[in-house]
Write a structure and sequence with these properties.
Layout: H1 6-29, H2 37-53, H3 64-84, H4 92-118, H5 132-159
Helix pairs in contact: 1-2, 1-4, 2-3, 3-4, 4-5
Length: about 160
Amino acid sequence: MPEISLLGWFHTIIAILALITGFYSVIKFKVIEIKQLTGKIFIICTLIAAITALTIFRHGTFGPGHALAVLTLIALLVGFTAEKTQLFGKLSSYIQAISYSGTILFHMIPAITDGLMRLPVASPVVTNIEDPLLKGFYLTFLVIYLIGVGLQIKWLRHRK
């Protein structure tokens, strides 16, 4: 099992804080918004986690985790733009929800991958990125994301 650097620990702790505040925001408020304290914490922690992910090169090259970090940064930018401007018109609140919730999905993919490839320490559950167990988790997370976004869109329609 590869050691985790100090930057890796910082990245992991920030990402976990982001996930906790993101889930809390979605459960309590139905959507993530920067006007909520938990929304602010989520967005800032997600931004920091994405930036730090771009500096971690465990395998020596740009990889899937880096691509997810770039997608996260794009989703944050789109979500923030949708929330703070009317660039997207009537679709702004929906685009915001889709974008911010998408960043939760982007957090979950490397979280489960790294977790299962590192734990338990002596004998990790997964030793290969192509393991069907990981693909099952990815599919499950995608389905949960789609259902969650569908519920958020329904709630946003009723809120208006």
